[in-house]
Write a structure and sequence with these properties.
Layout: H1 7-20, E1 23-24, E2 27-28, E3 50-52, E4 55-57, H2 67-77, H3 84-97, H4 109-114, H5 138-147, H6 152-177, H7 185-191, H8 212-215, H9 222-261
Antiparallel strand pairs: 1-2, 3-4
Length: 269
């Protein structure tokens, strides 16, 4: 991180990194692109498009600079590389370009809204992204800024639990769709030991070892994920109900036969 940055300016920088999803280990991550692909060479902006979920972007660095935005800031400041200090200075430059004095201005809904046009994950006054992307709420941003980053610990733990639950569900589904021929899918669903957890609002693509290639045509967005999970649950529930109804009918039939067999014969005249 850069030397000589005021505490208030550092608070702004850290909050932007938190909103952009690049905050980790108590500091901004300067060496990742959109989609969390590592950047091995920080001598320049990587300038490559990365796909993650239903989004694609060439944003990179702790503050997710787009190539054209980075080029503008780099030329204005005479930056020589894409290292941490250069990224910090470029982000502060962009804040000032949007009318924010990072050394003095507090983090409020109004000041956040001023820079929401620069960073897609920051909300405007309506609580929405200027670019239609998921945003952090102002309450999340305020709590993070006031706690110096500690407030994100619980959120990170929850995200990790959600990732684990999603991984289990995806792996179980892969087993089902790649089962050997002749194996009954409905039987697999009824005997599955994996519960169907709530799928989180997760922006990244699952890792390759979770079978993204197999599911890419199925899991195109989170609504499709929910629809698949709901259909699986409904199908299993319907099958169970049908089995119970059939069992009740069989019991009723056997009872009727037993009553008929032991009925007192009528006199024949």
């Amino acid at each position: 991180m850069s030397e000589g940055i005021s505490p208030n300016a550092r608070r702004w920088l850290n909050t932007i990194a938190f909103a952009e999803g690049t905050w980790g280990g108590g500091a901004p991550r300067y060496d990742i692109t959109f989609g969390y692909t590592p950047i091995k060479d920080l001598s320049r902006h990587p300038d490559r498009v990365v796909r993650s979920g239903k989004y694609a972007s060439a944003a990179a660095g702790a503050y997710q600079f787009m190539p054209a935005t980075w080029e503008r800031a780099q030329k204005a400041l005479g930056l020589k590389d894409f290292g941490p200090q250069s990224q910090d200075l470029a982000a502060l430059y962009l804040l000032r370009q949007r009318g924010i004095d990072p050394n003095k201005d507090p983090i409020t809904p109004e000041t956040i809204a001023k820079v929401s046009g620069e960073w897609a994950s920051l909300p405007n006054l309506a609580g929405k992204s200027a670019y239609g992307q998921p945003v952090k709420s102002f309450e999340q941003l305020k709590n993070f800024a006031q706690s110096g980053g500690a407030a994100s610990s619980q959120a990170q733990a929850t995200d990790a639990e959600s990732e684990a639950a999603t991984s289990l569900l995806l792996n179980e589904f892969i087993k089902l769709v790649t089962r050997p021929r002749g194996v009954d899918l409905k039987t697999d669903l009824l005997t599955s030991s994996i519960p169907a957890p709530e799928l989180p609002g997760y922006e990244e693509e699952p890792e390759a070892d979770l079978g993204v290639e197999i599911l890419s045509d199925i899991y195109k967005n989170r609504q499709q994920d929910d629809a698949v999970k709901q259909a699986m649950q409904q199908d299993a529930s319907l099958r169970l109900q049908q089995n119970l109804i059939a069992a009740d009918q069989a019991k009723s039939q056997l009872l009727a036969q037993a009553l008929s067999a032991f009925a007192t014969p009528k006199s024949v005249i």
